[in-house]
Structure formats: C-alpha cells, structure tokens
Known about the structure:
alpha/beta, Rossmann fold, Arc Repressor Mutant, subunit A, 2 domains, five-stranded parallel beta sheet, 10 helices, elongated
Amino acid sequence: MLTTGAQDKTVKLLIVENDRILLTTLASALHAKNYGIVGTATEAPAAIEYFNRIKPDVVILDIDLGPGPTGVDLAVHMRSKSPMLGVLFCTSIDDKRLVSAPARLLESSFYLPKQNITKIEMIESAIRESIRLVRSPEGASLDIYRLNEAKSKLTSISDSDLQLLQLVASGLSNKEIAFDKGIALKSCENAIARLAKKLDIPFTIDTNQRVLLTRKYFEYMGKIA
Length: 225
C-alpha cells in the first residue's frame, strides 16, 4: 500500500523537467524528504527508458520539454501502460485550460504551476493528490491553491475569454476571429475590448492592444517573463 506519511514515504518518483538546475533542486529536495527517486530526465526518450525499466508510482512532468514529445505526450503514453500512475504536471503554464490535452487526463492528474510553488510541502501535497485523483477520485479533494493562497492569474477569465485570447495570440484578424466564433465583427471588437479591460490592458493611441494581449498570452504560457 502506498503511503506518503512523514516517516514512511514509499512512493517512487520519476521527475521529468526541461530545466536541469530545477530538476536537480527538485530531486534533491524530495530525496531529502525520503522519497524514492527512480529517475530524472530532461527529455522524452530518457524518461520513457526510466519508466519502462523501473515503473514509478508518480511521474512529475514539465509540459514544455523542447523539441519533440511534450509532457502531455509522455503522460498519455505512460498512462496507457500504467493506468494507475499518478501524474503531477509541474509547469510554467499558468492555467491548465491553456494546455492541449485529453480532458480525462487533466481531470485525473494534478496541475501545479511552478510560479505558485512557495515551499516543498506544496509539492508533497500535490504528489498525494495526484495519487488520489487516479486511485480514489471519489475522495475529498485537497484545494492546494486555497491552502497556500496561490491563485492562477486567469481565475477570473472565462473559458470563452481564454479562447478569444488564444485566437488573438494566434495572429488571426478581428474579421477572422468573428468568423471562427460565428459572431458579428462589431461584437468581436467589443469582446476583445472587454477582455483587454479584464486583463488591465489600457487602450490608448500609443498602445496596440492586440500586441499586448498576445504578450499576456505568452506570459501565461510561461514563454516570457
């Protein structure tokens, strides 16, 4: 039986992180907490090799692993081989709605933005929750964000607003976005103006709202500081 108690951490972890310094820091911190680290990797091939050789209980996955398969691709592959694998996405992407992944995978995995982590105990709690989500989904959920007062910057943004932000960032014109969403051009322009206001992006003759919205999107995706 798996346990993550303070005295008996028998959970075997595989950590896949693109940032080598962060990978080493995270592995060392969890090792000091007596977790079993069965492997660390910065890219997909090494991660799959570790997974196939020593089946972990939980995999901690960065999503952006550079060229090639993503953390989501790895999660899909690993879950197909080990359905009870706990998956913890630890990523710079601010909101899981920005991640292109099967809904069922996201629902049965724990999502923790890197920028919200303030102490190692948050990762320990997330590890426990990743196990619960796949093994006892009917159990009471641990609201890690409420306990640590760490909120997504996009909490107040609706799914529709988020889709609109993605369309703007993709470089589509207002006319193309209006066609894509099946709305009038004027309605599209008003929607973009409202979205900019929600994100505290001012409208002046000296600013380009579309450029600033695009920058916001990439900021939420962890692409720029």
